[in-house]
Write a structure and sequence with these properties.
globular; alpha/beta; Methylenetetrahydrofolate reductase (NAD(P)H); four-stranded parallel beta sheet; FAD; FAD-linked_oxidoreductase-like; TIM Barrel
Protein backbone atom coordinates (compact mmCIF):
# COMPACT_ATOMS: atom_id res chain seq x y z
CA UNK A 1 0.00 0.00 0.00
CA UNK A 2 3.05 2.22 0.15
CA UNK A 3 6.24 2.49 -1.83
CA UNK A 4 9.28 4.72 -1.80
CA UNK A 5 11.47 6.16 -4.49
CA UNK A 6 15.17 5.41 -4.36
CA UNK A 7 17.75 7.00 -6.61
CA UNK A 8 21.30 6.02 -7.52
CA UNK A 9 24.26 7.83 -6.02
CA UNK A 10 27.94 7.57 -6.86
CA UNK A 11 30.37 8.09 -3.95
CA UNK A 12 33.31 8.26 -6.36
CA UNK A 13 31.31 10.02 -9.13
CA UNK A 14 29.46 8.43 -12.03
CA UNK A 15 31.85 6.31 -14.15
CA UNK A 16 31.32 8.68 -17.09
CA UNK A 17 32.42 11.63 -14.91
CA UNK A 18 35.67 10.03 -13.73
CA UNK A 19 38.77 11.34 -15.49
CA UNK A 20 42.51 11.73 -14.93
CA UNK A 21 42.55 15.55 -14.74
CA UNK A 22 42.02 16.47 -11.04
CA UNK A 23 40.45 19.86 -11.80
CA UNK A 24 38.03 18.39 -14.33
CA UNK A 25 37.21 15.53 -11.98
CA UNK A 26 36.42 17.97 -9.13
CA UNK A 27 34.12 19.90 -11.48
CA UNK A 28 32.44 16.69 -12.69
CA UNK A 29 31.98 15.45 -9.11
CA UNK A 30 30.27 18.71 -8.10
CA UNK A 31 28.00 18.52 -11.15
CA UNK A 32 27.07 14.96 -10.16
CA UNK A 33 26.13 16.17 -6.66
CA UNK A 34 23.93 18.92 -8.12
CA UNK A 35 22.24 16.36 -10.37
CA UNK A 36 21.70 14.07 -7.38
CA UNK A 37 20.11 16.95 -5.45
CA UNK A 38 17.74 17.49 -8.39
CA UNK A 39 16.73 13.80 -8.25
CA UNK A 40 15.95 14.14 -4.54
CA UNK A 41 14.11 17.42 -5.06
CA UNK A 42 12.04 15.69 -7.77
CA UNK A 43 10.79 13.11 -5.26
CA UNK A 44 13.63 10.73 -4.47
CA UNK A 45 13.35 9.60 -0.86
CA UNK A 46 16.61 7.72 -0.42
CA UNK A 47 19.91 7.18 -2.18
CA UNK A 48 21.43 3.75 -2.82
CA UNK A 49 25.05 4.04 -3.81
CA UNK A 50 27.20 2.35 -6.38
CA UNK A 51 29.63 -0.17 -4.94
CA UNK A 52 32.80 1.09 -3.30
CA UNK A 53 35.66 -0.35 -1.26
CA UNK A 54 36.91 2.76 0.54
CA UNK A 55 34.64 3.65 3.46
CA UNK A 56 36.32 7.06 3.72
CA UNK A 57 35.14 7.93 0.20
CA UNK A 58 31.57 7.00 1.14
CA UNK A 59 31.65 9.09 4.33
CA UNK A 60 33.03 12.07 2.36
CA UNK A 61 30.21 11.60 -0.17
CA UNK A 62 27.61 11.65 2.62
CA UNK A 63 29.17 14.83 4.03
CA UNK A 64 29.21 16.42 0.57
CA UNK A 65 25.54 15.51 0.11
CA UNK A 66 24.61 17.03 3.47
CA UNK A 67 26.57 20.19 2.60
CA UNK A 68 24.39 20.81 -0.46
CA UNK A 69 21.15 20.13 1.38
CA UNK A 70 20.52 16.43 0.70
CA UNK A 71 19.06 15.12 3.96
CA UNK A 72 17.50 11.79 2.93
CA UNK A 73 18.90 8.39 3.97
CA UNK A 74 21.96 7.31 2.00
CA UNK A 75 22.45 3.54 1.83
CA UNK A 76 25.95 2.30 1.02
CA UNK A 77 26.19 -0.28 -1.77
CA UNK A 78 28.31 -3.22 -0.64
CA UNK A 79 29.44 -5.84 -3.15
CA UNK A 80 31.18 -8.72 -1.40
CA UNK A 81 34.16 -10.03 -3.32
CA UNK A 82 33.07 -13.44 -4.62
CA UNK A 83 35.81 -14.14 -7.16
CA UNK A 84 38.95 -12.35 -8.21
CA UNK A 85 38.01 -12.16 -11.89
CA UNK A 86 34.49 -10.91 -11.18
CA UNK A 87 35.82 -8.32 -8.74
CA UNK A 88 38.36 -7.01 -11.25
CA UNK A 89 35.78 -6.86 -14.06
CA UNK A 90 33.16 -5.06 -11.95
CA UNK A 91 35.56 -2.54 -10.41
CA UNK A 92 37.05 -1.88 -13.85
CA UNK A 93 33.64 -1.40 -15.45
CA UNK A 94 32.47 0.92 -12.65
CA UNK A 95 35.86 2.67 -12.37
CA UNK A 96 35.80 1.90 -8.65
CA UNK A 97 38.78 3.06 -6.60
CA UNK A 98 40.24 0.02 -4.87
CA UNK A 99 42.63 0.69 -1.98
CA UNK A 100 46.08 -0.76 -2.62
CA UNK A 101 45.85 -2.79 0.60
CA UNK A 102 42.92 -4.74 -0.86
CA UNK A 103 44.75 -5.39 -4.13
CA UNK A 104 47.86 -6.46 -2.21
CA UNK A 105 45.82 -8.89 -0.09
CA UNK A 106 44.07 -10.37 -3.12
CA UNK A 107 47.13 -10.81 -5.33
CA UNK A 108 48.64 -13.87 -3.59
CA UNK A 109 45.24 -15.60 -3.18
CA UNK A 110 43.62 -14.65 -6.50
CA UNK A 111 43.68 -18.25 -7.79
CA UNK A 112 42.28 -19.74 -4.55
CA UNK A 113 38.49 -19.40 -4.87
CA UNK A 114 37.80 -20.29 -1.23
CA UNK A 115 40.42 -17.86 0.09
CA UNK A 116 39.05 -15.03 -2.09
CA UNK A 117 35.50 -15.69 -0.86
CA UNK A 118 36.67 -15.80 2.77
CA UNK A 119 38.54 -12.52 2.30
CA UNK A 120 35.46 -11.01 0.65
CA UNK A 121 33.36 -11.89 3.69
CA UNK A 122 36.03 -10.56 6.07
CA UNK A 123 36.42 -7.30 4.14
CA UNK A 124 32.66 -6.85 3.75
CA UNK A 125 32.15 -7.41 7.47
CA UNK A 126 34.83 -4.87 8.39
CA UNK A 127 33.41 -2.30 5.98
CA UNK A 128 29.87 -2.80 7.29
CA UNK A 129 31.04 -2.45 10.90
CA UNK A 130 32.67 0.87 10.02
CA UNK A 131 29.55 2.04 8.20
CA UNK A 132 27.17 1.04 11.00
CA UNK A 133 29.45 2.68 13.57
CA UNK A 134 29.44 5.84 11.43
CA UNK A 135 25.63 5.91 11.62
CA UNK A 136 24.58 4.66 8.20
CA UNK A 137 20.81 4.04 8.21
CA UNK A 138 21.12 0.65 6.53
CA UNK A 139 23.11 -1.39 4.05
CA UNK A 140 22.43 -2.39 0.45
CA UNK A 141 24.11 -5.64 -0.53
CA UNK A 142 24.89 -6.42 -4.14
CA UNK A 143 24.65 -10.19 -3.82
CA UNK A 144 24.70 -10.95 -7.55
CA UNK A 145 22.56 -13.99 -6.71
CA UNK A 146 25.29 -15.34 -4.42
CA UNK A 147 23.76 -15.23 -0.94
CA UNK A 148 26.49 -17.05 1.01
CA UNK A 149 28.79 -14.02 1.18
CA UNK A 150 25.96 -11.75 2.32
CA UNK A 151 24.91 -14.28 4.94
CA UNK A 152 28.55 -14.55 6.05
CA UNK A 153 28.76 -10.78 6.45
CA UNK A 154 25.49 -10.62 8.39
CA UNK A 155 26.75 -13.43 10.61
CA UNK A 156 30.07 -11.62 11.10
CA UNK A 157 28.11 -8.56 12.20
CA UNK A 158 26.22 -10.66 14.72
CA UNK A 159 22.92 -9.92 12.99
CA UNK A 160 22.10 -13.54 12.17
CA UNK A 161 23.22 -17.00 13.14
CA UNK A 162 24.00 -19.31 10.28
CA UNK A 163 22.88 -22.16 12.51
CA UNK A 164 19.37 -20.81 13.12
CA UNK A 165 16.55 -20.01 10.70
CA UNK A 166 17.06 -16.62 9.07
CA UNK A 167 15.20 -13.60 10.40
CA UNK A 168 14.89 -9.96 9.47
CA UNK A 169 18.15 -8.28 10.61
CA UNK A 170 16.66 -4.76 10.96
CA UNK A 171 15.86 -5.03 14.71
CA UNK A 172 19.37 -6.33 15.34
CA UNK A 173 20.88 -3.31 13.57
CA UNK A 174 18.90 -0.98 15.83
CA UNK A 175 19.98 -2.99 18.90
CA UNK A 176 23.63 -2.71 17.76
CA UNK A 177 23.31 1.07 17.46
CA UNK A 178 21.73 1.30 20.93
CA UNK A 179 24.50 -0.85 22.44
CA UNK A 180 27.12 1.41 20.83
CA UNK A 181 25.41 4.52 22.23
CA UNK A 182 25.42 2.99 25.74
CA UNK A 183 29.05 1.95 25.41
CA UNK A 184 30.16 5.46 24.48
CA UNK A 185 27.98 7.25 27.05
Amino acid sequence: DHFGIGVAGYPEAHPDAICEDPEQFAKNYQEELVYLKKKIDAGGQMIVTQLFYDVGNFLKFVKDCRNIGIECPILPGIMPIQSYGGFMRMTGFCKTKVPQEILDTLEPIKDNVDAVKAYGIHLGTQMCKQLIDAGTPGLHMYSLNQDKAVLGILSGLGLISLEEPQKNPTPAIEEHKEEDKKATA
